[in-house]
Model the fold of this input.
Amino acid sequence: MIYFDNAATTKPIDIAIKRFIEVSNSYFANPSSLHSEGKKSRQIIEKSEDELKNIIDAKIGKVIFTASATLSNNIAISGIVEYLKGKIKNRKVKILYNESDHPSIVDTIKAQKDVELKRIRFDKLYKKVNENILNESTENENKEIEDYILSIYFEAIKEFEPDFLVLQWVNNENGLILPVEKIANFAKKVKDNIAIHIDAVQGFLKLPFFNITDIDTISFSSHKFGGLKGSSIFYIKDLSKIKPIIFGGGQMENLFPSTENVAAIAATAATSNFLYSKIEKNYEENLSKKIYLFNLIVNNEILSKNLFIFSDKVFLNEKKPNKILKSFFSPYIIKIYNRKIPSQVLQNILNDEKIMVSIGSACSSNKKKMMKDKEFYGIPEKLSDKGIRVSFFIEETKEQIDIFIDKLNKIIEKYANW
Done:
């Protein structure tokens, strides 16, 4: 079996499983209990928080742990909106967001009552990416992709003057990396008291982290970086600027008041510490895999005519072969469109060959995915329902990529004459 669906979930790494078992056996007491065993469990949580704050370089604020990034996004968005409603009088709270983001962002925003919404779309991005891939573009021309994204956000922020800006750092379906630090910095200059939430799920411990000075809340998910399902890291800069939306025993600063999963929290911290020192190495290795995959497609007569990779060109540092100079798509996520076969059909054929890919977010329906691709990224209608997502982590090999490309070539060749 070849597993290329790591954006949906990664296989837990050994250190996560080992730490979970160790803590489950030795620190099983309720961390809210006042006896000595309960205090030992509490110390595990406090130590984990300190370690995570160090990794994200949080000089102020609080790190809590919830059961999922979906839950963290819900708490952040709904909680901040409720806080802003108490501060803003005589008008609705204004929220700026991108409707191509994860459903836990988009659907939560749409569920808010008495708010004014403005959505971002990158409907010319396909054209710019396609020109970038086809032409003999330079690094400066590659930068036009970032300039285009920034221009969309800057214009919307100036015109709409949102009270709340919600960003997804790395898109879960196509790997587009938002320049969140630049967007947040600009937003703060336009409106100093703007609230900013970032979903960092697909980028954390995979890409160099951004400066969080201008950010109010951030969500992360353990099972996206080799940890265990059921554990999310949630950063809050100022607890006074978010209202609780779940009620219970007061745990996790009243924002996630539930008995803490101490073992999962400890496993998340252990996994984070382990990967933190390996971000650059893992990034370079995945970049190498992405370039290898790209070149196999480009140099294959059948695949080069029938496939489109939704990504920018990768410019390398000649002195350090795998050192990237700048790319605006994650090397961990690659969206590949074909001109003949519907995505669900292609996914099923590859599944029969024991190759696991996805057709987008595991949390989105295919219908929603098609709408997003066409409307929000400018993907032509003839391609919008024919995309698959290949996503790497740390265990994939070039031999597996060879097998994938060979199978893909045979499939496309077979159906190319439809």
About this structure: The CA atoms of residues 65 and 129 lie 38 Å apart. The chain has a mean pLDDT of 90. The two ends are 29 Å apart (CA to CA). Residues 2-10+279-415 form a domain with the Aspartate Aminotransferase, domain 1 fold (CATH 3.90.1150.10).
